[in-house]
Amino acid sequence: MNLKQPWLPYRQMQTAPKSMMAVRTEGVRIHLADGRILIDGIGSWWTACHGYNHPHIRQAVQKQLESMPHIMLGGMVHEPVVRLTDRLARLLPGELNHVFYSESGSVSIEIAMKMALQYWINRGVNGRTRFLSFRDGYHGDTFAAMSICDPVDGMHRLFKDVLADQIIIDLPRDSQSLHNFEEKISAHADELAGVILEPLVQAAAGMKFHEPEVLSAISSIVHRYDLLLILDEIATGFGRTGTLFACEQAAIEPDIVTLSKALTGGTMPLAATVATGNIYEAFLSDEYEKALMHGPTFCGNPLACAAANASLDLFETEPRLAQVTMMESQLEAGLSVCRDYSVVADVRVKGAIGVVQLLHRPDINHLREQFISQGVWVRPFGDVIYLMPALNINSDDLQQLIDAVIHVVKATSS
Questions:
Q1: Which entry of 10, 63, 86, 160 is annotated as an active-site residue?
Q2: Is 114 annotated as catalytic?
Q3: CB contact at 8 A, 385 and 355
Q4: Which of 35, 117, 152, 201 is spaced 20 to 30 A from 163 at the CA atom?
């Protein structure tokens, strides 16, 4: 029987190679229908932070499934969402205490932007309708999120004429560029609702890193002009950069933070937009229309919240952050070999992220096939080959991923 195939993400369906059929996962391995087994080097787009099928998460989801797979949050709450909200508020820095749930990272960004815009409206401040973001940034594929992504090198250039007009500049990295950033903020402060960025790692647009000192300086300037700082921790949250949240390394407190991906350990779709009390209080009123008019159908889904609670349990009971420290050392030592190859522009490592940037964009499909032949699942994009595996990967499996990267880069240099 000729089965109809799904329309796949980020894929030119006419020219891309046929997709492989996955039938089972375990630990850091993906089992294919043809019998091959691949070590996953990207944790299912950075979600499977504890590896696949962790028994603690699986048991929590199974238990929740037996009692209540879903109930709407319209006028009701349930124990998993109440518990998760309290835990996130305790883990996040400062006064980030008010959690709004959705199902995907892109939607959590939309909600953050909507919160920021309505915050000013509810306060009676007019004209603050734009956002400032940074080149090499990526925040999602929905319409508001697309408007704050890199408009030149990002993947949404086709929509530039229909997206909201935001202010997008180079990320400041030194004293002069920080001065330029402040000048831009000063010139547009009256029309800005907020500034949004990915802390420490601009992920999906090129795996570009910046230092905690830069993040701290940006935060200081944003708050000096009484603007809102929104941090997109969808990729960096939950241990990936070496601390539970990347913003901890800069000792800063955003006004709003977005979380998703590893929130449930890669088990269920869930995202959170978390705001400070100052933001939340602007929505409290006798006037109904000042409430946040947003409500995803599966907002705070009990199954997803049960998975997220179980994932947080593992951060408490298993040495994830210590494992990230060991991964960082092994990635740096292993990938450093690539610096000697002619096709390599840069090698950089941050926490459990290892990046080899090439001088030129390669044949991506060819590189991906080479990785599969090495028994690993690694998906380069643009000019970047990167590793972001599960945080509890053992050193032998991580070394196999590193060796595969070295092999493919060396072959590309030949």
A1: 10
A2: no
A3: yes
A4: 201
Quick one: 319-413 is in which CATH superfamily?
Aspartate Aminotransferase, domain 1 (3.90.1150.10)
Contacts of 179 (CB under 8 A, 6+ apart): none
For the chain, domain boundaries? 57-317, 319-413
Question: Rounded CA gap, 128 and 185, in Å?
Answer: 13
Catalytic residue among 52, 101, 119, 138: 138
* Per-residue 3-state assignment (H helix, E strand, C coil) for 270-283: CEEEEEEHHHHHCC
Our answer to whether residue 363 is catalytic in this structure is: no
What is the rounded CA–CA span in Å between residue 333 and residue 356? 13
For the question of residue 261 being annotated catalytic, the response is yes
Q: Which residue out of 136, 141, 232, 255 is catalytically annotated?
A: 232
pLDDT tens-digit readout, 310-319: 999 999 999 9
Per residue, what are the HEC states of 235-275?
CCCCCCCCCCCHHHHHCCCCCEEEECHHHHCCCCCCEEEEE
Distance CA 154, CA 382 (A): 10
What pLDDT sits at residue 205?
Answer: 85
Q: Which of 52, 261, 350, 397 is catalytic?
A: 261
What are the tens digits of pLDDT across the range 273-283? Answer: 999 999 999 99
What CATH number is given for 57-317 in this structure?
Answer: 3.40.640.10
